[in-house]
Amino acid sequence: MHVAESAGVHEGPLRPEPPPGLAVAARPGLAGDLVRLIRPLHSIKALLLIPIALIDASPWTFAVVGRVAWAALAFVLASAAVYVGNDIADRHRDRRHPVKRRRPVAAGRVPVWGACLYCAVLLALLAVVTGMGTGPYWPVAAYLVLNVAYIRVLKHIPLVDVGAVALGFVLRVVQGYLATGERVAGWLLITAFSVSLLLLIGKRRQELLGVGAAHRPALAGYSLELANALLQITSVLALVAGLIYLRTEAPFGPDHGQTAMMLSVPFALFALFRYLQIQLAGRGGTDPVRVLLRDRVTVGICGLWAAVLGATLALVHYPVLAHAILP
Asked: What are the transmembrane regions (predicted)?
């Protein structure tokens, strides 16, 4: 997602800098460093969130799908530029982190001037993409402004830091709706915001257990008790908002929205239970993207949930198919 997300996992206490010779021996190469700078794994945030708007698009056309894909490309470039800018701004603090110290700028493998040039190239490509695209791209611009404020100020303010990052996820969803031209589903935005908060609070909790406030000053405003309470609150909000969306605004119609909601309850509950189990009873790690993608149980339950909702949507929109399958 985002500037607040790290590419590492839970580690032990802070360690001193390795000998210079060791860092040189482990150097992966400039091309690999440039790829690492833009966090390619985190592109999945745009590739998953922006196309959510296609659920409400009817009918799907090549033009609509193309606009959504173009919007996803714009956000991938925007987030890549933000990651590079964040690494430049945080290079001194990253050098005191057991995992982030290996990032290309913090480790000195990519010079600051080179990272600045790289960021400028990414922003130039973003300008080209948004200039060639159709429709408004104000969520991309808002995302960049938000992240400049985040890097400079907001990331150091407890609670505000996670809210700012979660807002970046919401902007991705809004951009998808602007690409399709459909009306924005309010409850879906609340769901995206609350799920993002849930993941980010879990990340903060793991950071408290790991490196503490030495690397992230905002952690001084958190505690394990507060993080646990916030996890409970955001879990309830995410569950309720998501079910209300399925019941009222999802494209199942007034007659089948309740069916979709009821079918989703066991999947949604189990997915939340699993995430809380990972965070509270396991070793969650500080990167929510890696945590969720590597957990086979979570991937499996979400895949089954998507299949059930997809089949329900198909039966709703194609009554002939429903009559052929159902007695």
From this structure: 69-89, 110-130, 136-154, 159-178, 184-201, 222-246, 258-276, 297-318
